[in-house]
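Tutorial, part two.
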Amino acid sequence: MDMNQYLEVFIEESREHLQNVNDQLMRFEKNTDDLGYVNEIFRSAHTLKGMSATMGFDDLAQLTHKMENVLDAVRNHQLDVHTEVLDALFESVDALEIMVQSISEGGDGQLDVKLLVQKLQRIVAEEPVAQHAASSIEYDELVQTLLNQTADQGFNAFEITVQLERTCLLKAARAYMVFDVLEQAGDVIKSAPTVQDIEQEKFESSFIVILVTNESQEKLQASIMEVSEVESVKIAAVPVKKETEMEELVSPEVAAAIQEVTVSAPSKSPVEEKRQPSNNKTIRVNIDRLDSLMNLFEELVIDRGRLEQISKELNNSELDETVERMSRISGDLQTIILNMRMVPVETVFNRFPRMVRQLSKDLGKQIELQIVGADTELDRTVIDEIGDPLVHLLRNAVDHGIEMPQARLENGKNEKGTIRLKAYHSGNHVFIDLEDDGAGINREKVLRKALDRGIIDGKTAETLTDKQVYELIFASGFSTAEQISDVSGRGVGLDVVKNTIESLGGSVTIDSNEGYGSRFSIQLPLTLSIISALLVQMSEERYALPLSSIIETAIVQPKEVMHVHGQKVIDFRGAIIPLLDLKELFTVPNSVQGDRYSVVIVKKGEKTAGLIVDSFIGQQEIVLKSLGHYLPGVFAISGATILGDGQVALIIDCNALIK
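Running the prediction step on this input gives:
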């Protein structure tokens, strides 16, 4: 069988299972008494093991199998949970992620996991492994609900105790044969010990099985006794609880969710409890197909603009009506397509708890990461780019923000620091706030470093507000660390964070209170593919300015323009802002200055500037096209768009114009 056709599904599902293991491990670490988390981890690990073995990725299958042994010992109360156990499981997840990543990049998924496997084996070996006797079997609410439902359908439920001969050498093989007999007669609901323990011969010589069947006790007894080395079989009918008793025993969630149970025989990938599949009507779609769909729709948007222009020129009522209807329908289609591309920021946030846990251990700090608004959605293009800046900011907060436990206690704080990551929508933007209750930013220390690096001079330093001082940490190569750290900036500084966010059409601001903490606030556009823009004319050329950067437009008389240090400025609502003539910046040919200035007021964070153009054309939705690899690094141009008449208009990057 050609397994390549299933490779993409394998990679995607493996990542989902590993993320679930990560999440449940983090929760289990905080509450080791709740074995429900362990069961969730075991299910994901077990599924991943089966998938890996089927696809032929032996290292993956081997490591997950050893993880199963540890998890099984934990959930059967054979292994006490301590730091070494949790660290080994986290380390295993890291190795599995490396292997899956290798496979996704075309590799073979092989990794030397011998030492890790030995560590997992040692953990299980150090603990006394109980040899389960068939003394009792637990009838939890799930099992009892199922038995109640099967009784209503006329089936019999039996508790079957099988005793093998004491001299039996291949106990797992005999147990397999017994299970095979039972599965031909009905459905196995549960066993004690578990099927996995029976597979690994972690039992003495007897085991118990709950079976739902139409067969009689006598026939079952005779069939099981035909298996070699079976010493005895005891079969008892399972009493079914009355409806009033079940109301007290079963939660509504369990009663509604459980419809079918199937347990396979040993060595057949058994599943002891199977939940009803979700009714969520979703399908997996390759992201390349969504990109292709988006590209086609972008062409439709361009043609829509052309039709609207032709309609205006011809002034035909029937054509106007048709074009208006097409514009409305394509607008609805645009909304649907953009929503299809929206991805919750949870896909980025999910990796942060593990990262913060490891970093806090490495630094000897106690840190709790709180995540709010993980279901907030962003276009996948933005999602793909925002991960690294957030990682950098988080590392910075862990390294420079949160103090050591002793220092926090001395300052009257809780020894455990808190980092809060919050995402939320506001208008056509998404905001991501990263806040910590650490030491905050030391104004004097930042100023001293900025002066030493020549970023500012002494005269300028005296005029800066606190917020302007904080923004100095975004300067290239700026760092207040006394020693270069492998945790946060490594001496690189936060300029990379700012540049990346601004390249996405966003902005980042800082607020801090020394001794109490800092907050970084990131503003991002919902999508980058189709944007609303103001079209402007400069001589024979047309340009587009993103509406997200525009405050307003204005007509300025020449007498209102002032000159400060050779720079044109105007008084805009009580603030002096610079004027930039785009015709001069972009060397627009045949440009002639009129008797007044058409000015677009734009913003970048708290900074404002006026851009001089010849005239305003109007607002329009445009498709942002990259300039490609042939025109990299063009100053103040973020891309281009094709207008309705086929002319190309360059899209101006307002952030690059404001310094």
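The first helix runs from residue 7 to 30. In part three we will examine how such features are distributed along the chain.
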